[in-house]
Design goal:
Structural class: alpha/beta
Largest sheet: 12 strands, mixed
CATH topology of one domain: GMP Synthetase, Chain A, domain 3
CATH superfamily of one domain: ANL, C-terminal domain
Number of strands: 22
Strand order of the largest sheet: 4-5-3-6-7-8-9-10-14-13-12-11
Radius of gyration: 22 Å
CATH architecture of one domain: 2-Layer Sandwich
CATH class of one domain: Alpha Beta
């Protein structure tokens, strides 16, 4: 996580220096994510796609048994929980997944250190942060082995499946503030030479600025574009509106939000290539990617998914430094029946549908749509937060503070909002508990501002 002071310093750098900083960061991350055995790991992932269902079950059962034993004996939170159960006379076996209680995000968020294994706590772990669409900020520690396994799986099933090869140039529309929000002239991106990736800000996708993005994709010879569905759709609409045909990709890959068929059609028409959906999260307790036949295939090496009343309860297998057992993601969906096959021929189990990942978008006065606001809460003494857009000029932040919350923390929160949305009025509303939907969920973003394609019209609702 980048500190606010460091981010301000970075924003004062000239554009070439920002790309140099991104490249240095890229080299650092590459050392974590890729090793000498990377190609072997990728080939292994591709080979496992043809395993029989029986082979997969035996493999997962073995991995799960080892992980449950490790969690019960080496992870402080789980070890103490099982000791307490034993003292109370509970003799249930920790070797059976169904004997473990569901883990809530709030429990993990309140004491993440208690979930790090004794032999990994505080040592040689890369911290990654998220709050997803629930408004709960989380910090997850991952080892080099975990990251290298994950990136090998991603290379196999979110790159090689789609014909994207090592050395191909890719671009990502993401939520890092790589250019100051107030900046109105390109570049709104940085080039990470270490990763051969063009990282493009989602905070500058105003209709009149989109042509600069398209020009950059052409100039950098990008063949694979990834990002939030909403951002990719905004790019596609402007490209179709302009009638441009000079951008053709191998594939466009969506993440973080569901992909509707109308959205898929728009992106395919704009970029002249297939659009593939992926599913994952920073906690890395489940993952999936769409094949050429349209099947959404699980990555069984990452975790075990239980669909309980169409709610995903997941147990991660790949992160032994911070194992999460029966973790409630907050996502809803359905698994395909066991044994259902896909026309692509791969035997990886299928997800029938994913629901409930939709977060409202914030809209700026010049028509930009902002999805990724998670970092505004990072590192602050806040248990949970919700951002409400009451109008294009007024933002209300509802939050549950910890006793450590101060005026300084409040000013930091306001400054972070304005860094991402411009000169807006920000109202801070501390609460004992955030309001929930009829389904019992807390929405991280609530917008009362409607947006129409192209961003030409902003319709105020309830403000």
């Amino acid at each position: 996580m980048v500190s606010d002071a460091l981010l301000r310093l970075y924003h004062r750098l000239p554009a070439p220096a920002r790309s140099a900083a991104a490249t240095l960061r890229g080299f650092y991350l590459r050392a974590w994510r890729y090793g000498a055995d990377f190609e072997r790991l990728v080939e292994g992932a591709l080979a496992r796609e043809r395993w029989t269902p029986q082979h997969w079950k035996a493999w997962q059962d073995e991995q799960l048994g080892a992980l449950l034993d490790r969690a019960a004996t080496r992870v402080p939170y789980y070890r103490e929980a099982w000791r307490a159960r034993r003292r109370a006379g509970d003799r249930a076996s920790w070797e059976l997944l169904e004997n473990w209680p569901v883990l809530e995000k709030q429990t993990l968020r309140e004491n993440p250190g208690a979930f790090r294994a004794d032999d990994r706590a505080g040592r040689d772990l890369l911290r990654e942060h998220t709050s997803g669409t629930t408004g709960l900020p989380l910090s997850v520690g991952k080892s080099r082995g975990t990251l290298r396994g994950l990136y090998a799986l991603a290379a196999a099933r979110a790159r090689r499946w789609y014909g994207v090869l090592p050395g191909d140039r890719t671009a990502r529309l993401g939520g890092q503030l790589v250019a100051p929000f107030a900046q109105r002239r390109p570049p709104f991106w940085v080039w990470n030479a270490a990763g051969r990736e063009l990282y493009m800000s989602t905070f500058h996708l105003a209709p009149e600025l989109v042509p600069h993005y398209l020009d950059a994709l052409v100039r950098y010879h990008i063949v694979c574009l990834t990002g939030y569905t909403s951002s990719l759709v905004a790019l596609a609409h402007e490209m179709l509106r302009a009638g441009r045909v000079d951008l053709r990709m191998k594939v466009v890959v969506t993440s973080a939000e569901p992909l509707g068929e109308d959205q898929r059609a728009a992106i395919e028409a704009a970029f002249g290539c297939p659009v593939r959906e992926t599913y994952g999260m920073t906690e890395n307790v489940a993952a999936a990617s769409e094949c050429e036949a349209g099947g959404l295939h699980q990555w069984p090496e990452v975790g075990v998914i239980e669909a309980v009343d169409e709610e995903f309860i997941c147990t991660g297998l790949i992160n032994d430094a911070m194992p999460l057992i029966r973790y409630r993601l907050g996502d809803r969906g359905r698994l395909a029946p066991a044994g259902e096959t896909c026309p692509c021929g791969r035997t990886l189990p299928l997800i029938a549908a994913i629901e409930g990942r939709t977060s409202d978008l914030l809209v700026t006065s010049d028509g930009r749509r902002i999805f990724w606001m998670n970092p505004v809460l990072y590192g602050l003494p806040v248990r949970q937060g919700q951002i409400v857009q009451e109008s294009v000029r007024r933002i209300r932040v509802r939050f549950v503070p910890t006793p450590a919350f101060t005026e300084v923390a409040g000013r930091t929160l306001v400054a972070r909002i304005r860094d991402r949305l411009g000169d807006v009025d920000v109202v801070l509303e501390p609460l004992a508990e955030l309001p929930r939907t009829a389904a019992g969920k807390v929405r991280a973003i609530v917008s009362n501002v409607a947006w129409t394609p192209g961003g030409a019209d902003l319709v105020r609702s309830g403000a």
